Amino acid sequence: MSTNFLPATYYEQFLSKQTLRTTPSPIRSLLPLEKTPGLISLLTGKPNESTFPFTSLSFTARGPTKNPSLLGPAGGVRNTDIKVTIDSEDLAMGLQYTDTAGIPGLLRWFEGLQEKMHGRKASDEGWRISVGAGSQDLIYKAINTMVNPGEPVLLENPMYAGVIPMFTDLGCDLHEVETDAEGISANSLRQILETWPQGKPKPKVLYTVPYGCNPTGMTASLSRRKEVLKLAREHNFIILEDDPYYYLYYGTAERVPSYFSLELDEPEVGRVLRFDSLSKILSAGLRIGFASGPERLLAAIDVYTGTSNLQTPSITQTLTLGLLNKWGYDGFLTHTWGVSAFYRQKRDVFEQAMNKHLKDLAEWVRPEAGMFFWFKLNVPSGDSNAIIRTKAFENGVLALPGTVFLPKGGTTSYARAAFSLLTPGDVDKAVERLAKTVKDARREQSTRGRLRVHPML
């Protein structure tokens, strides 16, 4: 296993001009010094904790289970409740300003998780973690930290619609990398890079969702990931590994290692910036995510945070840490197993309805992670946008047309359906209405075709 971590100076080439001009917050950059034993700090304008009205905090949470029969119909894991109490010292921290990167206890817990799941030891130099208000908060900051307006970027196509504006708002030169049932296409990526115009700077980042990709639901194979890592080294770019569905993997094969893990076997380590999210497995409303990767890049993101929202709310970090400490790593992984089993059941119910109503009307590949079906509508126009936005809505069902997931826009016959919330009965009704929509579109197209052939009618 390689221990050749890229030096901090290597990442200066990946930072945007704005980032290189930005100076750290004069107060937040000195906050760590307040922990010096014996030091009397006159540094910050922290409010006095004695003025806060909150005096105690406790809550109940579900205990983790591996029994699928205990999975609740609305998306939760049912088991004996456990009580979590936040002690006075932790509560005081949760009510106060804290370190930009995150409260120390939560950072240590995430470090242990990354070692357990990805083989990254906290003792290894060159990498660290920062907590954000959801992983999307960190992705936005990472992109603005690394990418200059107008610069070229590599984006898997189709891709998560919520990230596209982050690049288009910067006026980036978008280069779409094809995807298929095995995830991102290394051949497509290689073709883009090996035919790159001489003298034109190559992209600094590649954005990809490798597990249960939103919208396609596809999971990148091991061979694809290794080839992408090789290309990252050969063509000198950073992989933005957005992995919110990593713990929602429910395939029968062994889980494929992350880019963050696989790069440890590379000749050089430090070309992956990984984003994890707790939104899908603990609570979307907590807004807790964390980024792991090269220390220099995380430090730049922290500077961005220090001048925008100062930090991720301490109280949500404290709540999260209280629960995670109560569960421990084994309990956390047991819980995520239960959540993934729940979504596997949801997927199976949805696919049963698709086989019942959409056979011959649509095409799809069964996802093995996440909460989405990406399906091709077999309609003459080859355009899902008008059909989904008008006809489907008129028929009482709402989905997303595939065009919103194309970085450069355009026409596609694909659409995305989320299966996370619906009951089996509503799933059957929704898919039946989608089938009616496709049939109506076919019939209407056929009628228009006959009218063109017989204009006198």
TrEMBL record:
Residues 111-434 form the Aminotransferase class I/classII large domain. CDD domains: AAT_like. Its cofactor is pyridoxal 5'-phosphate. The keyword Transferase applies. It comes from the Eukaryota. InterPro entries: Aminotransferase_I/II_large (IPR004839), Class-I_PLP-dep_aminotransf (IPR050859), PyrdxlP-dep_Trfase (IPR015424), PyrdxlP-dep_Trfase_major (IPR015421). Coiled coil: none annotated. SUPFAM superfamilies: PLP-dependent transferases. Belongs to the class-I pyridoxal-phosphate-dependent aminotransferase family. This is Aminotransferase class I/classII large domain-containing protein.
